[in-house]
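[Automated response] Your request has been received and processed.

Submitted sequence:
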Amino acid sequence: MGEVSLADHVGGQLRRLCEVARTDPAGPLELLRDLLGSAGPRPLSAPPTWPSNIADDHTPVEFSLAFNEAEPPTLRILGETLGTPPGGPANMSATQRFLDTQARRAGLSTSRLDSVRDLFATEDPQGAFGLWCSLVFRSGRRPEFKVYLNPELNGVERAPALVSEALRRLGLGTSYQAMLDHGIRPGELGRRDRLTFFALDLLDGPQARVKLYLTHHDADGWDVIRAASVVDDADPTAIAEFCALAGGGRSRFDGLPLVGSYTLTEGADRPVGYSIYVPIRGYVDDDEQARDRVATVLARYGFDSTELDRALDAVAHRPLRDGVGLIPHVSLRLGAPRPGVTVYLSAEAYQVSPPLRRRVTADGTAVAGPAGRSPAGHP
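Generated structure:
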């Protein structure tokens, strides 16, 4: 029997997650193989060829499951195609080739991406990434595609102007200014509040979205409540409660940062949707504790935890108490188009982060781990 490859590992996880999402796995598995590119056949015994920031262990893909009212969970894959050899410009080119191939096959529209592509083009990308893509699988529907661009790829200080010009070209400049007025703490743009992701749906029409992400370092619940207040349907009570539940009752997130995202659409003078992301892995001892917190969140918003447990069984290859980071983020989605809860799941193809510190579980078992760590991360 040959060695297990990266494609074998994440492909098996994806196949099992498709059962949870009630989605035929054939199409998703083919897309995953194309997305992984040259990294797919590499054995897991070999280290990752590139420190992809998609996951703490540098696996270049991450899964998520979006819980929506009155429909099966939506399965998503966030991924980065690695160049040969990998590198900043090479990875951007490889991911773009993947997208171009899918555009030809699936008839995707890249017109909105084409209109801003030059703004996000550079031979020397800075920051954590250059170009990522998201694949979305809803039960009984064709796959949907989204791209993630890095506002900081020309430097943190240039991000506000870059985003401003991109949104002006897309006719969303008014929404952007409204977002900045509410989302940025005074004097903190580019410091504690940073523009970290610019996401585009690869389709045309009024339903096409731009999602703009703000990372809030050293923030508390009131900071994100103010940031969300520009969105009509962003209930401040729900945001405060969600942060408290996911954060284990803490009021300030001074470790891994909170992240907020705004949904911008044509014809609106302010964002129409808001999501808040809690990096739960930085505020739990292990994934057993993370699972219990997420189950509490799901119950609070009317979702059963059965599918959460099935999803964890689909990706985990070790007891939950033996590591931390299998659930890196949990988010609450408010406003258009589909309010709900999203749970993010790491593939852990290369490494499992140990529990953070010793504690005694309900059955009396002692679980040990280091006192802290400094993981990468994103929503």
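Summary generated for your ticket: Confidence is low (pLDDT under 50) at residues 366-377. The chain has one domain: 6-367.
If you did not submit this request, please reply to this message.
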